[in-house]
Amino acid sequence: MSLRLDSKLPDVGTTIFTVMSQLAADCGAINLSQGFPSFDPPEALVERIEFHLRNGANQYAPMPGVPALREQLAAKTSRLYGRNVDVDSEITICTGATEGLFSTIQAVVRPGDEVIVFDPAYDSYEPAVTLAGGITRHVALAQQEDDFEIDWEAFEAALNDKTRLVIVNFPHNPTGAILSPADVDRLAESVRPYPTFLLSDEVYEHIVFDGVQHVSLLSHDELWKRSFVVSSFGKTFHATGWKVGYCVAPAALTAEFRRVHQFTTFTVVTPIQHALADFLEDSPDIHLALSEFYQQKRDLFCRLLEDSAFSVTPARSTFFQLLDYSGISDEDDTALADRWTREIGVASIPLSPFCAAPFEAKKLRFCFAKDDATLTEAAERLRTL
Ligand code: PMP
Ligand code: GLN
Questions:
Q1: Is the shortest distance between the CB of 173 and ligand 1 below 6 Å?
Q2: C-alpha dihedral over 333, 339, 341, 347, to 10 degrees?
Q3: Which of these ranges, 78-87, 198-207, 352-361, has the smallest mean pLDDT?
């Protein structure tokens, strides 16, 4: 007998985030590739974790999540997005947004179903669809000058009766694109004739610049009924390594979500859930300062590159800045990200790995969730190009 493991994901290699972070470490480069902050989580939150670690919160949490945390999230959802959700049946704490995305896709997508994603699309979506037996249909975001937005005609042409799920991610990684209230209405109009669900990845919901407000699918009466909205504490509390996120969806959808969640992960790290609940109760508006905090970082990084050879359009959201290098090189983005990590010591993320078709625009993504000295040193190196 010959034992051979045929891959279920033969086209999947190591993620570009791991590749670039490893390369940055190997070269001693400044790592502006993988998105993680160089700041610590709030001290009061860390203290609450320590408290709960020492006071018995070390066994399995309830499968849907610690009730006190779900209560805080329900209150926040009502306050921010005007959606009153049921604490017991409409919120589930999961292992980072990644698990929320994965469990939603496994719960919804059946063999042969089509799933629409917008390119550049975050890299965890398609492998999850493939594992569920679904077919991913890529619709490229339209690029107007340096702004990206949904190409409504292309989207509507891709929608059909087999479309089981549409995955949206606004604020968008990596372009910083956001949705306006009119976009959300248009989305509702587009999907109205079809039996399709929506998975809305809103992990950057609290990082939107220039006074603009994030428009959540939670706030839309019609879309809410068919939406799974996934978010994460990783971005909001500078704690990407904790891997705690959540999924908000109507009760019938949440019931299916939990059928998968309970066997993907069952339950999420208990002391951190309790600590997050305490912290959100004490500081319910903590997220309000986040956009301003990151806007200063964005402005600093863009200002430092003002007279560089890059063309820079400030990001509208997230902690990623795209830099257009068409004035410097016509090399493809993946090769260039590799070369500049080695040669000038600044690691970035190319956009091609997030696209089905080659990404023509000459742009690299730089993470500006770093202390000012790191951003200054990185910009100095980039200005030599
Ligand atoms: N979606 C997007 C768009 C992301 O950028 C990330 C990673 N930062 C995730 C999902 C995964 O979030 P988490 O680390 O909470 O799993
Ligand atoms: N979401 C992070 C980014 O976009 C990376 C997460 C990961 O490494 N899987 O950079």
A1: yes
A2: 0
A3: 352-361
